[in-house]
Every structure is written in structure tokens, then in C-alpha cells.
Amino acid sequence: MVATSVASRVESLASSGIQLIPREYVRPKDELTTIGNIFEDEKKDEGPQVPTIDFKDFGSQDKAIREKCHQEIKKAAIEWGVMHLVNHGISDQLMDRVRVAGQAFFDEPIGEKEKYANDQATGKIQGYGSKLANNSCGQLEWEDYFFHLVFPEDKRDMSIWPKTPVDYIPATSEYAKELRGLATKILSVLSLGLGLKEGRLEKEVGGMEELIVQLKINYYPKCPQPELALGVEAHTDVSALTFILHNMVPGLQLFYQGKWVTAKCDPNSIIMYIGDTIEILSNGKYKSILHRGVVNKEKVRISWAVFCEPPKEKIILKPLLETATEAEPPLFPPRTFVQHMEHKLFKKSQENTDTKICQPQEQGTNPPKTKTSHPQEQGTNHPEKRISQLQEQGNNPPKSG
Questions:
Q1: Model-level pTM?
Q2: Which cofactors does this protein require (predicted)?
């Protein structure tokens, strides 16, 4: 059984004492068979594991050591599209400050957080919010969030940055600047891995002036029926790169070789995804991996997702000439970033219509339904990820685990 009413914030719903979640949060039956106990899943050591990259050798004076590091990043980007970065140069102290400040904001009473509420109906997506339904069926995710642009500094709207706690602004600003520098390093390695000049990919996504960096703090309250819900549904990120920090509560899962793999919790690592933007520019050589966020009934999970995105309309995203050949023709048609998001939204709407997922369904035994993409977009070696690869409606912020 499930409940029928939906509170305005998931946190309010979770703290109300309900034992049954509203039907709008119940996942389709083909997903329910894949949702397990995240704490047990995180303990498993058998099977594939998300690769870990020791970044300390990135700039080594020893060419052999430096090249080994670069090759490991390239291999992870090709085979997985996600990796744990350790010794990445961002201090543990700064990461802890970011975690403390973000949690302190969500520890505030909901009435205080509402002062920073966004207004999705008018297109104001920055601020405190909860997901709007992305289809006529009203399916929702077990998550609240705080979302805002953090870099470049001259594009920030400081009026919606929390004034409490007092360290939120300085800690978040410093972290954003550090991550922006890390993104440059990652993009340089990925460029070299494609046989391009070191700065090519960064230039293609907007460079220091135009690449947009946005932060989304995902807040996943305890869920009384975690076996029926998801914090974030399966998707790929539209970004160039996404960086994830979390509060050491497991919940991130990656779809790899036909199975969901749970990311381990490493207090010193930052998880990094390849986004659709880089997959397109590389003509599918680097993978934008399908991932999701799982919830639990024991602990609140918080994650800090930082999206590095090209400008919405100034750049045409398409496979670079150097990445396509007669034997490997372009897999993606030219689109602006906003057109790519709209394309994913359209595909999602079509998939929801085709599968008629309009009511919660009983648990089944079938595997998740998947859809291949347009013929011009096939050939990425993992069509399974197309299960739900679009972003939300245009008035929702990007998602990630």
C-alpha cells in the first residue's frame, strides 16, 4: 500500500511520521526489482568497482609517471565515464567546510529555507526547491535541493546565497574556484587522450569566461519505504563534467555492464562524471554514464553536485572533426546545449507516453525497460543508459546523484 497525499517538501513529508509513501513517489515495477538495501550493496566487493584515480601524479616531472596517470584517466573515461579522484589537490579541510555549511543550511527550519525558495513556474530555478513532476503522471523523486550558479563570479546572484551559516558563502566560493581549476586539468587530459591539443576541449565548452559552474545540494530525507522510491531517477548528466561530494552516506549507483554498481564512500575522494557534452564532442569515445540516487530509512543523505556546463546557445555541440572518420561517422547531430536538453526532454516525454507509466505498479520481475536512441546517436556501446537520460522539465535544475 502507498499513501495518496504529497507535501510541498519531501523533508516535511518524511518528518510527518508517515509509514507509507505517496503513490507519486513509487517507481515503476521494472525498476523496483533493481532497488536493494544500499548499505548492504555498498559493502559488496565482488564484481566491477568504480575506478579510483590517484591525481597526485597528474603534473609529475617524470614523464612516464605523468603519462601513466593520464592513461588511467582516459581509460576510466572510455570504459566507465565516472571515477573517484583522490589526491586531487582540494584540501580535506575545505571539503569539510562545504559539507558543514551545506548541512547547516538544511538543518534550518523549513520556514527559514523557504526564504530562499525558487519559483519554477516563472523560470526562476535557482534557490531552495523540490522536483516538479516531469510528466503528466506526476512521478516524483525523494529529494529536496538547493541550487545556484557559483562560477564565473560575475554571473553569480548573491541575493539567493544563504546568509546562514556565515561560512556558506566563503566556503562555497572557494570550493567552486578550486573545482574550476580541477576541471581545466581534467579537460586537458581528455583532450590529449583524443589526440587534440591540451586546451581544445575547454575551448569547445566555453573556456574560462563562458563555462558555467552550478552547484546543486541534494537533500535525501529518510524514506519509510526505500524499496519503492528513488532519490534521483536514472539519468545521464547533460554537463561537460560533474563533480560529486557527499556526506559519507551511500546512495550513488552507476549502470555498468548491465548492472547497477554502488559507489563506495571514500571521505577524501571526489566523484567525477563525464557528461553528455563531452560524450558528444568525443563522438562517443568518452561515456556519459547512466546513474541514479538510492534512498534509505536510516540516514539522511546529502550530496553536493557541481555541474560544469557550456553556455546554452553560444556553442554548437557536435562531434569534433578529429573524432569522426569514415569508419566512425558522427554519432550526434549538431545542437546547442539548450537544444540538447530539449531533445532529451522530448525523448523522455515520448518514452513516458509509449510505456504509459501513469500509475504506480506492483513489483515485477522484469528488467528495466530500455530504449535505443535515434540512429544517428547510436554506437556508444551502452544503449542501456538511454533508459531515462534526459533532464527534467526546463524549469527544474539539472540532477545528479
A1: 0.88
A2: L-ascorbate
